[in-house]
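User: I need a structural model of MFS transporter from Nonomuraea purpurea for a docking pre-check later this week. Nothing fancy, just the predicted structure tokens so I can convert them on my end. Input:
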Amino acid sequence: MRAWLTPKVSASSAWVTPVPAALYPANQRTACLADVVPAASRGLGFAVLQLLTTGGGAFGSLVVGVASDRFGSLLAGMYILVPPMIVGGLLTLRARTSFERDAREVMREAAGG
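Assistant: Understood. Predicted structure tokens for MFS transporter:
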């Protein structure tokens, strides 16, 4: 496997999908969090990020499974994920507006001012 590929294993299947590391969302979320959370709160920030990521991964598979059983189609079960993905995308776009300002504030605090 090439160095730029990161294996991504889904809990709901036995498939292993090679995903370019630059596109792997967990790396980006972690880096962004480190940039905008002050050092004194960074541990709590990473804990909350891990809790939400793990919870979403665990319950997302359950929701898709229950919905696909109820509707009789895995495709219909996957459509259940579209609204949360849209909400997450909109929240991410909104967070982009303050990212640079928050990062500058954290750097200013770290510099002692």
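Before docking, keep this in mind: The chain has four helices and two strands.
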